[in-house]
Amino acid sequence: MTVASTLSLPARTAHRFVEVDGVDVFYRESLPERPDAPVLLLLHGFPSASHQFRRLIDTLGRDHRLIAPDYPGSGYTVAPEGFTYSFDRLADIVEGFTERLGLRRFAMYLFDFGAPVGFRLALRHPERIAGLVVQNGNAYEEGLSGAARAFTALTPDTPGAEQAVLDLLAPGSVRAQYEGGTADPELIAPEGWLLDQHFLDLPGHREAQRALFYDYKNNVAAYPAWQAWLREHRPPTLITWGTGDPFFTVPGARAYLRDLPAAELHLFDTGHFALEDHLPRIAPLIAGFLSGVPAA
Q1: 88, 20 in Cβ contact below 8 A?
Q2: pTM for the structure as a whole
């Protein structure tokens, strides 16, 4: 036995752009050893981009085709001047992205902003959704913390709204989203939130995130439609949830079981970005889940 044969080697990953409706969408895609490997579409959250999935792609990408796009207003994706930032438009671009890549059947990883994007795709094309991995991706009002309720109620005319948005985009707040709620902040690498801050500071990105914050109330209004979709289609679902998330609370994780009683639920003693410190526990759960999801 050679030394190399005893190692768990990372996946090869391609870094590409594809044009969708005038948007240059950047994405990361693992290059699995099997051409028929199951596909997992990784939908990132705020304030991050596809880079939040780098380690997961390294870990699972040899056996699974993991694909992670950056939304308009995030990461390396470049949107044209005048692009309208709303969750409907993000879903439009991600929908077009999946079609450009020829994805006809795939599971989705729904995290934070990824939940409203992914559920919009599911409502439009239920036949394409093979299963769901939900990680702190909320779809129930009881999953909103008091802070989340207050923030989603903001409008541009709300006194102090502008400052509240700016505060959430500040370095201290971005870092807190990674370290807050974790049992051991020393396990959180600083590169994640520092790279997030770099992208947030790019021209136009703060304005994009501000528009999405004000649009978020439309996601809450859509919760009943998403729940009805879950009850009707009963997709295979794995739920992994950081219990210390300051925005999306544990009752929101448990609420999925009302509509998906066969779903698998795992709670972890961590915060919003659960993959940062619990990848060794979560990645095997995802691998096992994907092995049982029918490809067609």
Answers
A1: no
A2: 0.96
Positive or negative: CA dihedral 212, 221, 50, 56: positive
Cβ count near 81 (within 10 Å): 5
User: DSSP E strands: which ranges in 170-262?
Assistant: 237-242
Strand order in 129-135's β-sheet? Answer: 13-20, 23-30, 65-69, 39-43, 106-110, 129-135, 237-242, 264-268
pLDDT digits (tens, 9 = 90+) for 181-216: 999 999 999 999 999 999 999 999 999 999 999 999
108-164 pLDDT per residue, tens: 999 999 999 999 999 999 999 999 999 999 999 999 999 999 999 999 999 999 999
Active site residues: 272
Question: Which amino acid type is present at position 29?
Answer: E
Task: Name the helix (H) or strand (E) containing 85.
Answer: none
Environment class of 186 (CB within 10 Å of its CB; exposed 0-12, middle 13-18, buried 19+): exposed
Which residues, in sequence order, are CB contacts of 88 under 8 Å at separation 6+?
Answer: 120, 218
Q: How many CA atoms lie within 13 A of 115 on its CB side?
A: 27
Q: Which helix (H) or strand (E) holds 28?
A: strand 23-30
Query: What dihedral angle (degrees, nearest 10) is formed by the CA atoms of 262, 182, 171, 24?
Result: -30
HEC per residue, 133-188: EEECCCCCHHHECHHHHHHHCCCCCCCCHHHHHHHHCCHHHHHHHHHCCCCCHHHC
- The model's pLDDT over 59-118, given as tens digits with 9 standing for 90+, comes to 999 999 999 999 999 999 999 999 999 999 999 999 999 999 999 999 999 999 999 999
